[in-house]
Amino acid sequence: MDRIGKIFGRKPEQTASLEGGKAEPVNPPAVEKVEAVHEADSQEFFGLKLVLDTGKEFAFTALPVSIGRSEANQIVIKDETVSSSHALIYFDDLAQEVCILDLDSLNGIFVDHAPTRRNILSDGIKISLGAVELTFRDTGYIHNHQVPH
Amino acid sequence: MITCPNCQAENRSGAKFCKSCATRLPDSPAATRPLVMEADPQNDLLDPQTLHLEAQTTRRLTQDQRTGTKPLHLNQAFARRPKGAIFCDIYLYQSVIFSNENQHRYQVSLLKVSDDMQMRVCPNPECGAIFPPRNATPETYCTDCGKVLEVGGKNLVLVESRNPVPDNIVRVAAKGLSHGSVRAPLSAFVERLGDIPRHCVVLPLTQPLDSSVSASLEKGQALKWGISLARGLDYMHDNGVSFDGKVDQTCLAMVGERAVWANFSHCEHHPTGYVQERAVDTGALAQLIYYWLTGRRQFEPDTRLSSALNQIFEQTFAGSAETDGLQLAQALESALEDLSASQAVDLHSGRFTHVGMVRTLNEDSLVVVEMNRIQQSISRPIGVYVVADGMGGHAAGEVASGLIVDTIANKALEELLLPQFQAERPALSDWLRIAVEAANTEVFNLRKSAGTDMGSTMVAAAIIGNQAFFTHIGDSRIYLINGKGIKRLTVDHSLVERLIATHQITREEARYHPQRNVIYRTIGDKPKIELEITSLTLAIGDNLLLCSDGLSGMVEDEKICQLVLEASSPQAAAEALIEAANAAGGQDNSSVVIVKVAEP
Asked: What order of strands is seen across the sheet that includes strand B150-151?
C-alpha cells in the first residue's frame, strides 16, 4: 500500500493482509553516481552550491547528491560528528522544490539551526550536519532544466 | 455499514448521503437500529501500538553504520522546526501557532499528493465535513449533506510533542470521522529527528471556544448549536466513539460561527465499533445546552422554553432520559421552529402561470396553501407553495404535475393546517420530506399503470413564521430576492450543473450547452426519491420565488430581481415575470409563485 495511505490509516483493498499499521521500509532513492560535483572554478557557475565554513565549495548540477563521512558519498565531509551516510539533497516531487532529507543520521540535520528531517532548501539557508555548518546556494534552477543561457 | 439503495456502495454508519452517488440514505431510527457489531478489523480490534505509525520512509541504518560517529545530543532540547520543514513526507510547514519546551503547534498544508490520496472537504459552510483518504474508493459526495466534495487540506494544525499520542486519539484518527459538526484528528505518526522521537497529530483547523461567547448566545443560536452537536454525537456513537458522560465545553471548538466536536482527549473507544449506551453522553450534552439557554446548571422549569423542551431537560437532569443524539436533535429542531414561528412576520403571496408563446398545452401546475391566524395582533402564518413542471406530452405531463400539487395540498391540509390548532404538528422539515416522497410514489405508481413516460420537476417550500424549508427535484428553482439582490437557493439536478460543479464548463457556457435540458432527477422516475431539504430563516423584505424553467431559462437573473423588487405586489410581480418570459420568446410553459415576507 502506498505510504501516504498509511499516514492516513487508509484501508487496503480486501485482499491485503491485516498488518496495516506498520510502514514498510522504503529504500532511499537510487543515488546515481554523478560526476557533476566539483569545486566551483568560475563566478558564472549556475547550479547548486554548498559552502563550508572554511570557504570550501561543493558545486553540482545534477540531483540527487548524498552527503556523509564515507567515501561513497558525492560530498564527503571528514568530521566525526557526521554520519557515514548523513543526508541527501534531492528534488521532491510533492513539494516541487529542492529538499534535504536526513538519512536517519545519529546527530540529525538542522536548517537555520532548527532541527528537521525533510526540508525545503532555498538560497542562503544554513545547513548543519553534526558540528559542520554549510551554506546552501541556489544560483540557477538546474533541477527543472531552466538553466539560463 | 449502510448499503446505498441506488448504487450499492457501502457507507459508514451515520452517513446521511451516499458517498458515491449522493442518494439520501435510509434513516435508522433508534428502535430499528441493528445491534450487530460493526467492528473494523483494521482498527477496532488491533492493538493500538500497531496503529502508531512510524514515519519511516528511509532505510534505518544499523548500529554498525553509525559507529564512529560522535554523538552531540543536539536534539535533546526539543526545538521547533524551521521554515520549509516537511512533516511525514506530506505536510508542509506554514507557520507556528504555539510553542513551548514540550509541544509545538504548527499550521501546515497538505502537499500535492496523487488524486486518490487527497484530503476532501465539503464546501458547504454549514457542514464542512473533512474526508481524509480512508477507503480504496474516495468519497465524491459529502455523506452528511450530499454536496460535491472539493480538494482540501490547505489549513491543518500539526501538534508535535515529546510525549506519545494517547491511544484513544490514535484510534479516532485511524477511524476518520467525517461529519459536519465533528473535527476529529486526521492522522497520527512518530517522526525521529536524530534518534529523538517526535509524536505528531494532524488536526483540522478550529478556533477555541471562548466561554464568553457561549455565555452570551442567543436562544436560537444555542438551539442551532445544540442540534448540530447532537447529530454529531449520534454519528460518533454510530462509529464507536463515546465520551462516557464527560461532555462539556472543553470538548468543543469553533468553526466559523458555530461549535463543533474537536477535543477527543476524554473520548472512549468501543471495540464493537458501535455505542449501545447513548443516554449518558446525550444527557450531558443536553445539560450543556440547557446552560446555554438559561444560564443555570440546575434544572428549574423555564417558562421561556416550550413544555416539550422542559420535559426533555427535566428527564435529563433526573438521569431518567433514554434519548440518543438524534432524538435530542429532533426535539431541539421543533423547539427552534416554534421559536422562529413566534417572530412576527406576515406572508403575502402571488402566483401566475402561462402556456407560453410556442406550446399549446400547459403542463405546469402550482398550488398555494396558506393560513394566517392572528390573535392579539400576533401573526402566525403557515404556508405551503409548490410549482411542478410536468413532462411527457399530452395526458402525461399535466397529469403528473397536477397529481403532485394535489397530493402535497391534501397532506398540507390534513397534517399541517388542521393539527396546527392542536399543537401536534410534525416538524416542518420532516413533513416536507414525507409529502414530496408521497407525491413521488403517486406519480410513480400512475406512470407504471398508465404505461406512459410521465414525469415532473418540482420545487416546494413550507414556511412557518420566518422559518422556511424547501426542496426541489430537477430544474425547477427557488430564488431569494431582497434589497441585496438575487440568490439562487437550489442547484438544478441537470447535466450542465454537474459540469459546472466539476469545473468542466462555465456558467455562461451552460446557457448555450446543447444538453442544457438534460436533467437526471425527476418525480415519478424511481420508487424512492432523493431529497435535499434546506432550511432558511427569512427576514422582512425577503421574497422567495419558486419557478419552472420556462421563466429561468428565458429571463436573466438580474432582470428577474429587478421586476420583483419594482412590482407593487407579489401578484403584480408574478404577472410581470411571466410577461417578460413570453416577451423573450416564451419557449416553454412558465409558472411562478412569489412569497413576500412583510411586517404583520
From this structure: B130-131, B120-121, B150-151
Which chain A residue is nearest to residue B72, measuring alpha carbons? A107
pLDDT at A25 over 50: no
When mean pLDDT is compared across A16-25, A77-86, B162-171, B527-536, the lowest value belongs to A16-25
Distance (Å, rounded) from C-alpha B253 to C-alpha B263? 8
**How far lies B466's CA from each of B77, B346, B540, in Å?**
59, 8, 8
Contact B46 A118 (CB under 8 A): no
Q: In chain B, what residues touch A22 (CB-CB under 8 Å)?
A: 50, 53-54
Q: How many other CB atoms are found less than 10 A from the CB of residue B410?
A: 15
The SS3 of residue B533 is coil
Distance separating alpha carbons of residues A106 and A102, to the nearest angstrom: 10
Question: Has residue A29 got a pLDDT over 90?
Answer: no
The CA distance from A96 to the nearest CA of chain B, in Å, is: 9
**Cell numbers at A74, concatenated:** 558525492
Report the residue of chain A nearest B48, measured CA to CA: A21
Task: Give the C-alpha separation, A107 to A120, whole Å.
Answer: 19
Residue B587 neighbours by CB under 8 Å, 6+ apart? B356, B357, B358, B550, B553, B554
Suggest the residue from A77, A116, A122, A125 to mutate for an interface test with chain B (most B CBs closer than 10 A): A116
- Which of A33-47, A49-63, B380-394, B398-412 bottoms out in mean pLDDT, i.e. has the lowest? A33-47
DSSP B56: -
A28 grid coordinates: 532511499
ipTM above 0.90, yes or no: no
> DSSP of B418-487, one letter per residue?
TGGGGT-PPPHHHHHHHHHHHHHHHHHHHHHHHTS--EEEEEEEEEETTEEEEEEETT-EEEEEETTEEE
Q: Which of B74, B60, B77, B71 is nearest to A128 (CA)?
A: B74
* CA separation for the pair B258, B221 (Å, rounded): 8
B190 neighbors B199 (Cβ within 8 angstroms): yes
- In DSSP notation, B538-564 reads --TT-EEEEE-HHHHTTS-HHHHHHHH
Nearest-CA distance from B118 to chain A in Å?
10
Q: Find chain A residues with C-beta within 8 A of B191's C-beta.
A: 117
- R_g of chain A computed on alpha carbons: 17
Q: How confident is the model at residue B394 (pLDDT cuts 50, 70, 90)?
A: confident
Is the CB of residue B543 less than 8 Å from the CB of residue B480? yes
Helix (H, G, I), strand (E, B) or coil at B281: helix
Q: Determine the residue of chain B that is closest to A20 in CA distance.
A: B42
The letter for the amino acid at B467 is: Q
Query: Which pLDDT tens digit goes with each residue over B173-198?
Result: 888 899 999 999 999 888 888 778 89
HEC sequence for chain A: CCHHHHHCCCCCCCCCCCCCCCCCCCCCCCCCCCCCCECCCCCCCCCEEEEECCCCEEEECCCCEEEECCCCCCEECCCCCCCCCCEEEEEECCCCEEEEEECCCCCCEEECCEEECEEECCCCCEEEECCEEEEEEECCCHHHCCCCC
Question: Parallel, antiparallel, or unpaired: how do β-strands B241-242 and B196-204 relate?
Answer: unpaired
Instruction: Check residue A57 and give its pLDDT.
Output: 86
At residue B156, the pLDDT reads: 94
Q: Is B351 helix (H, G, I), strand (E, B) or coil?
A: strand
- Taking a C-beta distance cutoff of 8 angstroms, is the pair A111, A136 a contact? no
CA distance A46 to chain B (A): 23
Does B7 score more than 60 pLDDT?
yes
Cβ contacts of residue B244 below 8 Å, gap of 6+? Answer: B266, B268, B280, B281
- Say how far apart CA B405 and CA B386 lie, in whole Å: 6
Of B59, B135, B194, the CB nearest to A107: B194
- The pLDDT, as a whole number, for residue B179 is 95
Which three cell numbers, joined as nine digits, stand for A148? 539560463
Is pLDDT of B57 > 50? no
Element housing B327 (H / E): helix B325-341
